Amino acid sequence: MKSKWLAGLSFLALATTGNAAFAQSGNETETASNDEIVVTAQKREEKLREVPISISAVTGDMMERQGATRFSDIAGYIPGLTYQPGTSGAAGESRFNIRGVSQSNSPISGTAIYIDDIPTTVHGANGAATFKAIDLFPYDTDRVEVLRGPQGTLYGDSTIGGLIKYVTKSGDVNDFSAAAGVEATAIDGGEGIGLGARGVVNVPIAPGLLGVRVSGFYQETPGYQTNIATGDKGTNWVEQRGLRIAARFTPSHNFSIDAQWMKTQFKSGDRAMTQLIPGTLTPLNGDYINFSPVAQPTAQDFQLGSLTARYDAGPVSLTAVSGYSKVIRSFTADYTFFVRDFVAGYTGGAVTDALGIFDAPNQTEKYTQEVRLASSGENRFNWVIGGYYTVEKTNGASYTIPQYADGSPITNLPPIFNSFVKARYTDKSLFANATYKITDKWEVSGGIRHSWITDRFNNRSESLFFPTGEQTDASSGKNSATTWSLGTRYIASDDLMAFVRVATGFRAGSTNANSSWPGVPDSYGNDSMISYEAGVRADFLDDRASIDLTLYYLNWTDMFVFGQSPDGLFGFTTNGGKANGGGLEFTGTLRPVRNLTLTATAAYFGLKLRQDLPDVGARAGDRPPATPAWSGSFLADYAVPLGGDWDLHLGGGIRWSTSNWSEFRDDPTSLRLPGYAIGDLNASISNDRWTVRAYVRNVTDSHKVASMGLDNRGILMMPRTVGLAVDVKF
């Protein structure tokens, strides 16, 4: 009842281009208007309020004020975006879904993640896309742009739901700057205090010509899980560290080169999973208590390098973007529930207490190149044309390792199941976009993109389940897709803008592993999305109030779903049918008095299946898994000048959601996950040099189940977290 009440109240709360609450100006006593926020969502600089798509922008200052060390910490305040911790409970596994385009039943994300103009999403189905979400710390983040709806024309594959784009800070060629900070966090039930440190320095090595920025961070997150099988507490601790170097070279007023290299690492001692009573959401032994005879550590190493050159030739400008990224991930899981019975049966009952480990190291390298030629300036007819190329190379393996109860390996058994994968994915695309101003206030736009995709795959598996003990699957395929968009925008005045947009997107089909096994199809085809949307943004009451409202309708065909071979041994992906439905995204802001900003957001997710899919437990009328009917938030931010050059900021928010199903509702493992309303608080005192911040996330210490894993394990919401940070600028 509380979630339904909150859904209704969102519409009564007067509200915003809701991004204003996230966009804080350099003056700590004022909230920036959307006129001041410039975004590059359409690969050119535009004022946020004038972009004719559904978009939100979160500044690095706002992330820092709320104590957010991951984008997921504030995802609940962005309309239309839902966040779910990965079903494995492993650190770093994050699922961001936009407009209900869920990844829960697919190996490939429908929400792409970019760092500047470099895609980091693993598009190939065999690249373990679920496990490679990338997070950056606020020190290096100028803003995060969230683009809702298909973005296939400018961004290509795997953007059928939308796009999350981190925009980083580059080197400053003119001014020296430096900053450093320390932070301490405590988690209810956690073991110890988590410490963090960060620093950044920018040096104009050749003033006006070359500037270099170097930053680094280290962050500990205390563990709060207890493993009663081993007696260990605080097992799911996390350590993160990173280093970034960025440089800007401006040899002339119309030519610049931006280069960056970054490396981030994290490791975790165990998974954040709670053992549940089968068929319920009730913890078997208590909240944040798991029973795992073996440790389940996770580690990830991410590197990215990019080079962006821009040349303005007057009537046209040329941009070339080169990128390279590499992700190495080590993923370990407790497979005792699977291995123990098998070993007991195979040994005739001689070994009944065997342990099982599933180990899955994986590496993906990605090269990208994009070249764009665009018209310059404000013309009646503006255009951009370009070409894009990417190649992904994935090498992965998985091992099912039986052990004796003392942890030593059982070596006198044939392989239970080991797999070795090599995959290569390429995408070659051409695209064009154009805008024509019919009048000074009214314009029309359109775009088209064609992609040529190849996917090569080789999988060798060892298992006693195979008649010969080994099975090899190799395949290659070619694919293509055309996406397009049409839109119009009308700017009635400085305070009122409306737009209409139709856009398409797709995800590339691929091959299935173990396709030579009976009942496993060789491959599956593309899915596709078409979106119809209309939006309005308006300021009124002398700019003390604003609204941002988008209505949309989605039509999703050939959506990806998981299936299983008739004997239940192997899973696969197939095309599952059609889903459609309407929705809305709303943000509103009210500034009733000076220095006080109130913001409310709401989103309705109406995307539903239109036929039964009995193989995956889906009925017509079901929403995709992990998709609520409603979600939203409230935010309040108050600034108080204290005298001298000191300011006090007080802020708080509530992020809420109605219930959702962990899988399609007729899946025998599916459970209805409860709705929630989670509160956050933050406060800071600052001047031109010093900032002292305090924050509390999950104020009421809610322990509700956020997602479900295997073998009756649930991932509960992170307990109440309290943090204190001090930053200084030089």
From TrEMBL:
Membrane topology of this protein: Multi-pass membrane protein
Main subcellular localisation: membrane
The TonB-dependent receptor-like beta-barrel domain, residue ranges: 287-699
Keywords, in A-Z order: Cell outer membrane, Ion transport, Iron, Iron transport, Membrane, Receptor, Signal, TonB box, Transmembrane, Transmembrane beta strand, Transport
Annotated ranges, domain TonB-dependent receptor plug: 48-162
Compartments in which it is found: Cell outer membrane
Signal peptide: 1-23
InterPro entries xrefs: Beta-barrel_TonB (IPR000531), Beta-barrel_TonB_sf (IPR036942), Plug_dom (IPR012910), TonB-dep_rcpt-like (IPR039426)
Family annotation (PANTHER family): FERRICHROME IRON RECEPTOR-RELATED (PTHR32552), TONB-DEPENDENT OUTER MEMBRANE RECEPTOR (PTHR32552:SF81)
Family: Belongs to the TonB-dependent receptor family.
Protein's name according to its UniProt entry: TonB-dependent receptor
Native species: Sphingomonas colocasiae
Lineage, broadest ranks: Bacteria, Pseudomonadati, Pseudomonadota, Alphaproteobacteria, Sphingomonadales
